[in-house]
Amino acid sequence: MSIVKMKHIRLFGMAADRETLLRQLQHLGCVEISEPTDKLADPDWAALTRVDDAGLARVKADAALLNAALNTLKGIGKEKGGLLQARPEVTEGQLFDEGLRASAMEAAQAVNAQEKRISAIQNEQGKLRAQKAALTPWLELDIPLETTGTREVSATFGAVMSTVALDTVKQALEEATELVEVIPAGKDREFQYVLILCHRSAEETAFETLKKFGFSRSSLRGWTGTARENTDRLEGELRRLEGELAEAKGAIAALVPHREDIKLCIDRMTQEIQREEYKGRLLQSQATIFFEGWVPAENLPALEKVLGQYPAAWEANDPAPEEYPQVPIKLKNNKLTRPLNMVTNMYVLPAYDGVDPNPLMAPFFIFFFGLMMADMGYGILMVAAALVVIYKMKPKDGMADFAGLLLLCGISTFLMGALTGGFFGDFIPQLAKIINPASTLALPALFTPLNDTLAILIGSLVLGLIQIITGMIISVVRKVQTGDVADAIWSEVTWWIILGGAALAILGIGSVGGYPVVLIVGLVMLVIGSTRNAKGFGKLTALIGAVYNGATGFFSDILSYARLMALMLAGSVIAQVFNTLGSVTGNVVGFVIISFIGNMLNFALNLLGCYVHDLRLQCLEFFGRFYKEGGKPFRPLFIHTKYVDIKEE
């Protein structure tokens, strides 16, 4: 349970071995190759250049093609497994099988070609439907759409506003000229479509009159034949396209059996992309390559065995103190503390010369979460959900941490619920009263949130005091280990003496001649410690700042732990309220339904609320006492898959 010790490695190798070396390093999965930024700016390294990224662009293009095909296939047919199904296992040889890659790429190209064809067909269908809709108003007219009239008479297709009565339009035209005829066509919500036949000598008069009614000419260029003839032709085209669309969809459905191969190939491409990205961190000349990076000290023998197969010159050294900010962080924990990686990663990793917070935080985080949830029913749900995820999905990495943390917090929640007598609030006593109104059944409880609120509040503050003092003890130990004994004495130890002296003074213990000696010693130490590095008037401001920040910071941190009581009380009350609402129905079925809905809502809200507030207590109140942050995660070149798990060959 510690921060893994790292070795800084530097290697010169042969350019001809580049690909095989990277493959073996990826198989080993314990080497992080650093960006060569500082080397590129150094004139002494001018002879070496970065590896070109043409390979990365090619592999990313192949991955994009595969992902596009998979997205198309996802909505077709039934996929194997389900949400809680464990990922299939393959060997590394199967993952990198060239035959499978070729067949998967061929299938993906075929899927994408058919998808492109479907898109083109659907676009064409959209155009034809729009054309068909444009012809709909003219279906009543048995007149070719290309008609413009004769030498003496003009024919104009157009429309007036639908709010205008067509008889009014006709009457106005008759009053203006007798040489015009209005032939009505179709109508929609906005327009009344008409064909205007007019003697050419009266065109100007007729169209001036039509303008008053919002007349506009319809553009029917390109159409020949009647609207009905064109509509029939368009319907035939649409039927043909429907057939082609069904054919293309059938071709894609026939490729569904290749879906698992495509997933496997996507995982392979992920490894190739990672390898190409790391290849871009290498420096090379015509014959050699160079890189530097980091490897856990515990993996150095395995790395040495791999590098021994190549004509390479390399070294591995402990990082110098000035290199600590660049050293990647890997935490090594057991099954009990590893799930707390979820919390640490959400906050920030410790510095290389800091301390692994997981084993220090684990008992507090798990206990505090259970104290806030404190319900046997909720604990059972959490444990059951965690076990299903662990044994059905066999999760890895972050999901495994989540399931492990859910399991530990579920156990804590159940145990605290047993102490408070909570099982979905007061579900069992309420149910017993509905079945038998004379029932006095109650679950045994050491204390309850509603009856022992003050005691729980005091207990919460005491727990906060214990955690804060624990953080201060860790800080003192770290300072002593690094030789900063004076700061430990003038900071943490001074406040311990002050707090202890204040407690003794209140109890009337340890006074000499009526003076609280221990408290006075602590205050003197505070004055000396806070002013030892200040000069002149700065001593006064430093003293005031130390007193104010120390006292307010310490007590405000302790008061933050009142949230332990608040969340326990809130969760218990909400559960009881929903149970009471359910009992109003007077029958078991109604009670169970209302109680179930309310408790599930309360469970979901409490699950999130308790996690967030627990996280705050650890990251602010606890970590603030000793935590040295600033680490960056260790990201080695390794095989990381999404759809399959790798098994040993």
3D architecture notes:
The protein has helices at residues 18-28, 37-40, 54-74, 92-95, 98-135, 166-176, 203-211, 227-253, 259-279, 300-307, 341-347, 358-373, 376-393, 397-420, 427-435, 453-481, 485-507, 517-531, 538-560, 562-583, 588-626, and strands spanning 2-3, 6-14, 32-33, 49-50, 89-91, 153-161, 180-187, 191-199, 216-217, 283-284, 288-296, 313-317, 328-329, 331-332, 349-350, 511-512, 515-516, 629-633, 645-647. By secondary structure, the chain is α+β, with helices and mostly antiparallel strands. It has three domains: 2-94 and 256-331, no CATH class; 147-219, Alpha-Beta Plaits (2-Layer Sandwich), CATH 3.30.70; 338-632, no CATH class. Strands 2, 3, 4, 10, 11 and 12 form a six-stranded antiparallel beta sheet that branches. A hairpin with a 3-residue loop joins strand 7 and strand 8. The radius of gyration is 39 Å and the shape is extended. It starts with a strand and ends with a strand. The model has no long low-confidence stretch (mean pLDDT 88).
Write the layout of secondary structure elements.
Blueprint: E1 2-3, E2 6-14, H1 18-28, E3 32-33, H2 37-40, E4 49-50, H3 54-74, E5 89-91, H4 92-95, H5 98-135, E6 153-161, H6 166-176, E7 180-187, E8 191-199, H7 203-211, E9 216-217, H8 227-253, H9 259-279, E10 283-284, E11 288-296, H10 300-307, E12 313-317, E13 328-329, E14 331-332, H11 341-347, E15 349-350, H12 358-373, H13 376-393, H14 397-420, H15 427-435, H16 453-481, H17 485-507, E16 511-512, E17 515-516, H18 517-531, H19 538-560, H20 562-583, H21 588-626, E18 629-633, E19 645-647
Parallel strand pairs: 5-19, 13-18
Antiparallel strand pairs: 1-14, 2-11, 2-12, 3-11, 4-10, 6-8, 6-9, 7-8, 10-11, 15-18, 16-17
